[in-house]
Design goal:
By secondary structure, the protein is mostly helical. The chain has a two-stranded antiparallel sheet with strand order 1-2.
């Protein structure tokens, strides 16, 4: 019997393959050659930085957190800004980008249905999925009915190629004319900016599913990585994002580097953003503690000498903490239900509302203290 034939690879998407190859080669050759021969001006670098940040923020704050996940509402002026620089980022129309991203969250890690499943390897999840006509990458606009009603997004989708070409050449050329350095601006603010912007974004699909920690969930490959967050405008806190996708923040702690959340929150007082969605802190703490208990149980299962008194004491402490954890969850649910019921009935007095909210905050503080105790237990288990 003959061996099973190797399945044929899907056809190449030549437009994508040539675009990625030509821009990468141009950046690798032209940037050092022009820089050494003629040098780049301060204006070249300034415009490069502005376009790079504008492209990045348009993708993270616009395509991703506004349109793909609807984590907040944005003023028309801000949406136009996102559309201009999101189109310039050359990552397809918002329709196609958001449709693919919603499929990614729905089928994360499924090798047949996740458009850029990390389980198919770094190359595939980083860029390979865009080079061939894989069935998983075919746009399915049935998952974006809300976006299809947006006239701005519809206009961008229908005229995407013309807009993308015009912006990627037009804006660097305009800057070159203004600052009297056409070629330097085209090479730096045009080519290098595009290549850097592409691969930084692609790191979220690849490295952010392979390199980092999983403090909130192990149900998928998404990782939190502070180093990636620095170059991806806060998107590196990917484990948090995959469990709390409808939070406008990825770096939920105030000190975590997430300039996208700072932009969104900073524009709220001036009316450019509103209805920012935040995950209740109790749910964040609950996810963190649930992962701590799961890992503690695994470590206890790996420990030898089950009759050893020290190990049995640790096992008892973990069991006690877990009972307290379940009790806190039940208390929080009970108080929250009471607060919502009183609010629905419109009979809640101000002092009652404050009292119930105070109880909820106290439960959250108790979970924070318990998480610190669990960290000590983890150290002892190690």
């Amino acid at each position: 019997m003959s061996a099973n034939p190797i399945p044929a690879k899907p056809p190449l998407i030549w437009a994508n393959a040539l675009m990625f190859a030509v821009t990468f080669a141009a950046a690798a050759v032209l940037v050092p050659w022009y820089g050494l021969k003629y040098g780049f001006t301060g204006a070249d670098w300034a415009v490069f930085a502005f376009f790079l940040i504008a492209n990045g923020m348009a993708i993270t704050a616009g395509y991703h957190r506004l349109w793909a996940h609807r984590t907040y509402d944005a003023h028309l002026v801000l949406r136009i800004f996102y559309l201009i620089f999101g189109t310039m980022a050359l990552q397809n129309s918002a329709f196609i980008w958001c449709s693919g991203h919603r499929s990614h969250h729905l089928y994360v890690d499924d090798v047949d249905r996740d458009p850029y499943s990390a389980r198919r390897g770094f190359w595939f999840s980083h860029i390979g999925w865009m080079l061939r006509e894989y069935p998983s990458g075919k746009p399915d606009f049935t998952n974006i009915p809300d976006l299809k009603k947006d006239r701005l997004l519809d206009f961008q989708h229908r005229h995407y190629v013309a807009l993308a070409v015009g912006l990627n050449f037009g804006l660097p050329i305009l800057a070159g004319v203004i600052f009297h350095d056409l070629w330097g601006m085209l090479i730096l603010a045009g080519v290098l900016r595009l290549v850097w912007s592409h691969h930084v974004t692609f790191f979220i699909n690849s490295l952010a599913h392979m390199w980092g920690t999983r403090p909130y969930t192990e149900d998928n490959t998404a990782r939190d990585n502070p180093a990636l967050a620095v170059v991806t405008y806060g998107e590196g806190y990917h484990n948090f994002h995959h469990i709390f996708a409808h939070d406008y923040r990825n770096g939920v702690r105030w000190w975590q580097w997430d300039p996208t959340k700072w932009l969104i929150a900073g524009l709220e007082p001036v009316g450019l953003t509103r209805r920012l969605k935040r995950t209740p802190w109790f749910q964040v703490e609950r996810a963190l503690l649930a992962m701590q208990f799961k890992r503690a149980e695994r470590r206890l299962a790996d420990l030898t000498s089950p009759g050893h008194s020290h190990i049995e004491q640790l096992r008892a402490r973990v069991a006690h903490e877990y009972e307290a954890f379940l009790a806190a969850i039940a208390d929080w649910a009970r108080v929250k239900e009471q607060w919502l019921e009183e609010k629905r009935r419109a009979v809640i007095e101000h002092w009652q509302q404050s009292e119930l909210q105070g109880k909820l905050r106290e439960i959250e503080r108790a979970l924070s203290r318990q998480r610190r105790r669990m960290r000590v237990l983890h150290a002892q288990l190690a």
